Amino acid sequence: MQEDNVLDASYWNDRYIDDNTGWDIGHHNSIHTDYVEAHYTKSTRILEPGAGSAYEVAYLHSKGYTNVFALDYAAEIKQRFLDKNASFPPSHYLFGDFFDVKESFDLVLEQTFFCALNPELRNAYVEKMSHILKPAGKVFGVLFNFEKPDGPPYGGSQKEYRAIFEQKFDILRMEPAQNSIPQRKGNELVIELLKK
Question: How confident is residue 66, by pLDDT bands cut at 50, 70 and 90?
């Protein structure tokens, strides 16, 4: 297992500088964007933490979603995103640590950010996620569905995830993804979690 201090802002920033970004699929993930477009109005406050290239955020913004936010603490990728998405409001790409977020949201898009964190932070993630969500707020997205203790990414199982999330969320959906991108087929769970 990686040490806590390895997975800091400079670690992730260096990964972007070195183009060592195997997680970057190069386009928005329709699992996320289809869900948002089917269930949420264009004024909904939406956050994607650990967003990196934030393709989902860019796509939703292009479709008229006015309160969609990215969050990352790798300065390199935030600047790349803003250079590539000139019409995106810079103040909506939040720069900093997820655990320091003060704003609140109706929906958080989970794009395996949970699996990039040291597993020792998983309970803190659940606590923080519950804190930043408004009443009836949800987490929606994907988690990796495989055991991998030597991340990042770190994997897990439905049983493990349920035990963690049930503390603060009603689990509306946690099931194998049916429309994963080819390189992740069979290795993702779709989650839909409602704040208690």
Answer: very high
Residue pair 101/40 in contact (Cβ under 8 Å)? The answer is no
Asked if 98 contacts 71 with a C-beta cutoff of 8 angstroms, the reply is yes
pTM (2 decimals)?
0.86
Tell me: pLDDT of 154 over 50: yes
**What is d(CA 189, CA 177) in angstroms, rounded to the nearest whole number?**
5
pLDDT recorded at residue 26: 67
Nearest to 31 by CA among 176, 132, 128: 176
Return the number of other C-beta atoms located less than 10 Å from residue 90's C-beta: 11
Which tens digit of pLDDT belongs to each residue from 14-34? 666 666 555 566 668 899 999
In angstroms, rounded to a whole number, what is the distance separating the alpha carbons of residues 166 and 125? 13
Q: DSSP states of 124-148 as a string? A: HHHHHHHHHEEEEEEEEEEEE-S--
Least Cα distance to 57 among 29, 38, 18, 83 occurs for: 29
Helix (H, G, I), strand (E, B) or coil at 46: strand
pLDDT of residue 161: 96
Closest CA to 189 of 178, 149, 181, 152: 178
Can you give the pLDDT at residue 1? 31
H helices, E strands: number in the chain: 7, 7
Gap between the terminal Cα atoms of the chain: 32
